[in-house]
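Lab notebook, bench 4. The sequencing result for the construct came back, and we need a structural model before the next group meeting so we can plan mutations. Quick request posted to the team channel:

Model the 3D structure of this chain.
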Amino acid sequence: MPDAQFNDLIHAPVRLRICGLLRPVEQLDFAVLRDTLGVADAALSKHLKLLADAGYVRLVKQASANRGDSRRLTWVRLTPTGADAFDSHVRALREIAGQ
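Done. Here's the predicted structure in token form:
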């Protein structure tokens, strides 16, 4: 278990919520994340790019059998590195809060 460490990249509200939503699941569809967070596609893409560049999330595009067009679904998952960083950040927040 990594030590408690405050993470400025994860701490931004939308990125913190992204990591929190991804932590208990294997992966989520981009559209589900967008709708749950109530943000625009462009805003979510920007946050995901920052997290992906840090190695915290992985995005996978796949064709959808339910679609008649060529658009693909984008699946988002927290990497093991991202899960460790998120867990460490949450522990740091608990220490700050005195819990």
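Residues 62 and 68 are 14 Å apart (CA to CA).
Will bring this to the meeting.
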